[in-house]
Amino acid sequence: MSSIHEECGVFGVITPEVTDVAATCYYGLYALQHRGQESCGIVVNDDGVFASHKDIGLVSEVFAGETLSHLPQGTMAVAHARYGTTGGNNRSNCQPIEVNHQKGRMAIAHNGNLANASALRTELELAGAIFHSTSDTETIAYIVTRERLSAPSIEEAVSRAMGHFRGAYSLILMSPQKLICVRDPQGFRPLCYGSLPGGGYVIASESCALRAVGAHFLRDVEPGEILVFSKDGVTSRREHCGTAGKRLCVFEYIYFARPDSVIDGVSVHDSRVLAGEILAETHPAEADIVIGVPDSGIDAALGYSRRSGIPYGVGLVKNKYIGRTFIAPTDRSTQVKIKLSPIESVVSGKRVVLVDDSIVRGTTSAQIVRLLRDAGATEIHMRITAPPFRFPCYYGTDVDSTSSLIATEHTTAQIAEMIGADTLGYFPTDRLSELAGGQGFCSACFDGNYPTSVPRGEGKNRFERRLSDSE
After folding, report:
1. Which of 171, 150, 170, 173 is nearest to 160 (CA)?
2. How far is CA 381 from CA 4, 354, 409, 418, 426, in A?
3. Which residues pair with 353 in a beta bridge?
4. Which domains occur in the chain, in start order?
5. How does DSSP assign 369-383, residue by residue?
6. Active-site residue list
7. 394-409 tens-digit pLDDT
8. pTM score of the predicted model
9. For a tag site, which of 54, 348, 352, 437 has the least CB within 10 Å?
10. What is the structure's pLDDT at 328?
């Protein structure tokens, strides 16, 4: 692991009349592609009959050619773009997950990660449950299904199931008659919804996906809230609201979300510009130019330039045509050269402030610094818009151990030397609340203060290892 990988993106739509809801999901997933690039899928509800297509790959690959047109029209659909934080990259882990049971069908899309997924899965397996995937989303589906057998409605089953879950889950569930979205009581992961011009509603991980399908943003789903969409309109259930302090993942603002999204009332772009301004205050440098590492470092570089007075320049160009099918060379330094290229006329002979979102192992940072040195930069002062990563995350990123984190065993000065930078400055942990607009946030990967009980010694592929150990 050389960088922090994306989350997942969830998307759902409900309309009063039969329409091409699959196409709406397709465009919504395109807008959320940055959140997950391993696999994707769409499930359409045509008068209670579900039809789906899911596979490994980007949205443009999975729904290439006439694939999308083979899905029927309907009044509801749910969709998902995946980067797996529990479970490997295989077809059985593609979402949305579909369930058939005595009370009817259900499709579920999940963004986040349950901190108690292993304990719940063990409980279910000992009771006779048979799992077909290694993702924690199937565990969620099992718990909801179990509660549905005695609950009077699907939304009541979801509410009861929430009492079993610990950790991050922004969900969209589709039953034959209803579309339901839910955000965990601590609000780790974003979720919002809006209205369509012709009637109906759209739910998405980020507001940028609403805009992509022409929907009008209404509001964010509140932590702990259950929203039920049906032919009768929208109903809000709030029995889980306020049962825990808000802990939105602050890395949504630093890296995960698209800069044109607004999450819980805070503009992602503005948050990143502010991060650069704060870095200019706390880690000034004497330099000739400020550049950002595409894409998430660009906004912060603008902020650093604005506050410091050092001119901003485009010093690195990203190759935007490298997709999942690109055959990456085994030499990691060659990979970086193909993905990023310096503009020599901008950086040659210059003292450069280089702004990026994070340092994980340090290998990629070292290669970028080397690219700029080779292009003629005389000094490189690296500035990072996140504090040092020192602890695993159990809520939806793939930082699942300390073994790959350079900051757990090295000082800032040592890391600067290891990556070849003249100086290195991290974002101050005590100012993270400013990036989140003063609302509650989770920073456990920086300070180790976990808002829930967490498992120890379990990684992304823990369920694959369990299956291997039992053979």
Report:
1. 150
2. 21, 6, 21, 13, 11
3. 290, 381
4. 9-247 (3.60.20.10), 269-439 (3.40.50.2020)
5. HHHHHHTT-SEEEEE
6. 8
7. 998 767 778 779 999 9
8. 0.91
9. 348
10. 58
